Amino acid sequence: MSASYISTFVLTLLLAIGLAFFLRAASKDRTTVVDVSSKLPPLEVLSGISNWLESRGWKREGGDIERKVLRFQGNVLFSPLLAVFLSILCALGGGCLGLVICQLFPVIAWWPLVLVGLGPLAGLFYRQRAFRIESVELQLISSTEDSSSVLRLRAHRDELIAMESELGKNLALESDGSLVSSPI
């Protein structure tokens, strides 16, 4: 066996490991907690956020009056385009790994090319892991009845970023800015 075949085999295995980590990261839960303050009264802020969430398809689940918590639930859909992309990527990777194995071990014949069939499994895996029920939790931390309020928001990171960018000016929301400035 040539050293170039072995190095190609090792690199192809590393690419397969990278694909596995990418699949895991694509369906990872990214729930984040952030504290937000506003100069507006708590009822105005809570009703503004509630209306915005309901307009985006979130359903009010209830809450806890003693803890001053409101909860919303919604289904997180998977991206069909990403599922197809991952399936194609996995099929190509399986085909490449199969070709390298065929070159390293010619006795096996064409059987390693069956690894191309792993492609649809990657899309199905992503689809099952990414489709889940998410929740948004609004907790009133402190307030002075007529002037200002502090909320603790617990939700998916992308939902918090959308909330901060769309409602920030209307509801005078202020946070530490870590969601928008973070590179991830």
Sequence-ordered SSE layout with sheet pairings:
Layout: H1 3-26, E1 31-38, H2 42-55, E2 59-64, E3 69-76, H3 80-104, H4 119-130, E4 132-143, E5 149-156, H5 157-167, E6 173-174, H6 178-181
Antiparallel strand pairs: 1-5, 1-6, 2-3, 3-4, 4-5
Helix pairs in contact: 1-3, 3-4
Give structural notes:
Keywords: Membrane, Transmembrane, Transmembrane helix. Pfam families: CCB1. It comes from Prochlorococcus marinus (strain MIT 9211). By secondary structure, the chain is an alpha+beta fold. It is elongated. The model has no long low-confidence stretch (mean pLDDT 83). It has a six-stranded antiparallel β-sheet. The longest helix is centred in the middle third of the chain and has 25 residues. The protein has six helices and six strands. The chain has a domain of 94 residues: Fungal kinase associated-1 domain (TATA-Binding Protein), CATH 3.30.310.220.
